[in-house]
Amino acid sequence: MIVVEDFHKIYGSTVAVAGLSFQVEPGQVLGLVGHNGAGKTSTLKALAGIIPPTRGSLAVAGHDVVSQPIAAKARLAYIPDDPQLFDNLTVDEHLQFTAAAYRLENHEDCADELVEQFELTEKRHTPAEALSRGMRQKLAICCAYLHRPAVILFDEPLTGLDPWAIRKLKESIVHRAGQGSGVVVSSHLLAMVDDICTDFLILERGQATFDGPREELLSSYAHDEATLEEIFFRVSEAAPLAAVEG
User: How far apart are CA 195 and CA 214, in angstroms?
Assistant: First the structure.
């Protein structure tokens, strides 16, 4: 579902990502992990077609993000940590706008299910500017799921969500992956997402220090019974010190 090869992103004199390559297969949930400035958001934004790569190639569902941007974007959904909604549009109007943008027919039943699943039924006629941070996040997730994307990119998806909503979101991620979507979840709340990730990509200074299945990451440290969070920090600290900022 996702193929990234030799991806570089440079902002002026700052190297945010340096030669990153990885893949995400259908059904995988990839945990994208790293310190602030490791290159996580730059990678997600490049995959979403928001920023261009300086070098390298990125493909979504078989479509090159640069040369086939519309086809690639039609197959993906990107949920940033602070979704930019239309303040004057209601919950229902956001879903209607999304359906029109993706040229969806007979989307109403799906919209109803999503609104109920994320507990927005009573807010359907409320404008986005009157929603709490958590409700805005849930609305963005509903809009993202509406066109049944093949690839779903989450950047800090748990921000502002209460425990019930976090549980529902995690269940929905596992369900979407079970239906064949490729999912990438970037989060600083490692303990909150490690149970849903099948694979991990750990970034440090724009480079990968680990890329592989969860079991491989755990088995590497099985001898000292380290927690997954402790492993993340150890792998990150083992990154080469050469020269990249991000």
Answer: 10
List the one residue out of 7, 11, 101 whose CA is nearest residue 59.
7
* Lateral strand order in the sheet of 14-24: 14-24, 2-11, 55-60, 63-64
67 and 16 Cβ atoms separated by less than 8 Å:
no
**How many Å apart are CA 151 and CA 241, to the nearest integer?**
33
Global confidence as pTM: 0.91
First-residue to last-residue Cα distance in the chain = 26
Query: Quick check: 151 pLDDT over 60?
Result: yes
Please say if the pLDDT value at position 198 is more than 90.
yes
Three-class SS state of 92: helix
Strands, E assignment, 131-227: 151-155, 182-186, 199-204, 207-213
pLDDT digits 0-9 by tens, 62-87: 999 999 999 999 999 999 988 899 99
User: What does each C-alpha distance from 97 to 93, 94, 149 come to in angstroms?
Assistant: 6, 5, 16
Tokens of 159: 């921000």
CB 196 within 8 A of CB 29: yes
CA distance 35 to 15: 15
Convert the pLDDT of each residue in 27-50 to its tens digit: 999 999 988 889 999 999 999 999
